[in-house]
Amino acid sequence: MAEAGHVFLARIGKTTLRPGGIDATAWLIEQADIQKNTKILEVACHMGRTMIQLCERFGCSITGVDLDKEALSHAEENIKKRGMEDKLKLVHGDAMKLPFDDRSFDIVINEAMLTMLIGDDKNKALGEYMRVLKPGGLLLTHDVVFFTEDKETQKDLRAGLSRALNVHVEPFDARGWKSVFEKNGFSVRQKTGALTLMRPSGMIRDEGLVRVFKIIRNAMKKENRPIFQKMFRYFNGHKDQLGYICTVGTKPFTGTEV
């Protein structure tokens, strides 16, 4: 089975695997009034980078959940290196069946994952996020967006992106993303921008020049070059049609809260 794009990029040294990079994530975080006592869940926490940064900045406790045991092992190592075991908790679990009680968290963060859920799986995950959020809680997501509303073009882009990433994906245009969030009960605010994941300027911004040189050196190895070139050419060849979308979804109050 071919290696998934995000797994490949992590293997060659890329640490930021978000469509809009660190700037898009920073915008998301700015939308939430995070305090030391804010209870946060990060779904698909990967190697724990965002968890660690939030803990360093706000001193809050965060639970990270991921289905990938290898990624969780790396996250555990990263957390231990920084002595944050008392603040950061890792759980092996599925976004579509979260092992947490109802109304457990103030904020749920989920970046670059909903794009990879197909059909009703998106609704299952969003239903779980709604369930574990407290009333008034926020869902912060970051995914790929189409800048065209033409359905045939979207179909072609979806197929091409799936081939480039070696994994089936299902992004939407901004209206489509808004619709799926609202269908699951969230009120929505959105921000879109350029997809910087594979742009040279975006890579330098996210990783720093020294790390980018290391990534490129790894990418140009004989065994890595074909998949890197395929991804690089696709993302940069469709930069006017693909972007990132950040969504802030708010769980409404029902009027029955005590």
What would you say this structure looks like, in words?
The chain has 258 residues and is of the alpha/beta class. It is 43% helix and 21% strand. The chain is built from ten helices and eight strands. Strands 1, 2, 3, 4, 5, 6, 7 and 8 form an eight-stranded mixed sheet that branches. Helix 6 links the parallel strand 5 and strand 6. Helix 6 runs antiparallel to helix 10 and helix 8 packs across helix 9. The longest helix is centred in the middle third of the chain and has 15 residues. The radius of gyration is 18 Å and the shape is globular. The N and C termini lie far apart (51 Å).
Q: What are the key terms here?
A:
258 residues, 10 helices, 21% strand, 43% helix, single chain, 8-stranded mixed beta sheet, alpha/beta
Helix content: 40-55%
Overall body shape? globular
Radius of gyration: 18 Å
Hey, roughly how much beta strand do the residues contain? 15-25%
Q: How many individual helices?
A: 10
Distance between the termini: 51 Å
Strand segment tally:
8
Q: Report the mean per-residue pLDDT as an integer.
A: 95
SSE string, helix = H, strand = E? HHEHEHEEHEHEHEHHHE
The description of the largest β-sheet is:
8 strands, mixed
Structural class: alpha/beta
Outline the low-pLDDT stretches: none
In short:
With 258 residues, the protein is α/β, with parallel strands linked by helices.
